[in-house]
Amino acid sequence: MIPFSEKYNWYADPLVVIFFFPFLVLLGAGAQTNNFSHKICKFSGISPIRLYDPLSFHLAVYELC
User: Fold this and answer.
1) Domain ranges, ordered by start, for the chain
2) pLDDT for 12-55, tens place per residue?
3) What distance lies between CA 5 and its chain's CA centroid?
4) Contact at 8 Å (CB) between 45 and 37?
5) For residue 8, how many C-alpha atoms fall within 13 Å in the half-sphere facing its CB?
6) How close are the terminal C-alpha atoms of the chain, in Å?
7) Whether the Cβ atoms of residue 25 and residue 11 lie closer than 8 Å to each other
8) How does pLDDT run across 54-65, given as a tens digit for each residue?
9) Coil, helix or strand at residue 11
10) Long-range CB pairs of 57-63, under 8 A, 24+ apart, other chains included
């Protein structure tokens, strides 16, 4: 966490956005998943879309099992 400073936030915030966030995405893009974490990732990607339609939500859960 970056402490707040009127003097240094002008420099620190853009540096974090330009260098640190893409580095985190790069780390996540190369990550390997096991069967359990793959199911969690797949479920979290499906659930917001199908939350409004209960039948399709239950079908998505059924597909994961």
Assistant:
1) 1-31, 34-65
2) 888 888 888 888 888 878 778 788 877 877 777 665 555 566 66
3) 29
4) no
5) 6
6) 39
7) no
8) 666 666 666 666
9) helix
10) none
